[in-house]
Amino acid sequence: MPPNEDILLLWSLFKQGEWDAYTKLYNQNFKLLNNYGYKFTKDINLIEDAVHDLFIKLWTNRANLGNPISVKNYLYKALRSVIFRKMQNQSRFTPMEDDYPFLFETSFDLVYIANEDERLLQDKIKSVIQTLPHRQQEIIFLRFYEGFSYPEIADIMEINVSSTYKLLYKALNSMQMSLKLSKLVIIWAILSQINKNAKIL
């Protein structure tokens, strides 16, 4: 069974009140959600509280939940809202701010890169991404590192689909100007490293 069908079945069983399905859904997504939450704040307690609050709400309201096309997309969007609300309550930022906090980090260093030129390129890409506005960092993370589609990103970031294209274009254009490389080379370098990381995780 394809991964997406598997998690949709798990979601369906969870909605029916099966505790095992609920705990499996939690365990399968806990690390991913914590990793995403860590992009917005380094407050581990806030992140874990947000994830726990999200899953408590899911269980409480399970009978009224719909059937999302992508469970991962649904969870990311929901967690993002919970974290933003908690941060707002702590006066760390206001929802009207366009450039909310986003701390881009990658696990490039997990893989030993034999080619020195490739290693230097990966380091440069990481450094340049970290200089981008936070919204641009987030869309690069969601698009390339999490593999979300443009409609899914629009849903998570609460913007329209055309804005996701424009936002990603701006990010890649800024990287192109900084790195003096074509957009295709930059995308290839990012995806190449992601594939290497995936093989060892």
UniProtKB/TrEMBL annotation:
Belongs to the sigma-70 factor family. ECF subfamily. This is RNA polymerase, sigma-24 subunit, ECF subfamily. It holds the Pfam family Sigma70_r4_2. GO terms for molecular function: DNA binding; sigma factor activity. Keywords: Sigma factor, Transcription, Transcription regulation. Residues 124-173 form the RNA polymerase sigma factor 70 region 4 type domain. The lineage of its organism: Bacteria, Pseudomonadati, Bacteroidota, Sphingobacteriia, Sphingobacteriales. GO terms for biological process: DNA-templated transcription initiation. It comes from Mucilaginibacter paludis DSM 18603. Coiled coil: none annotated.
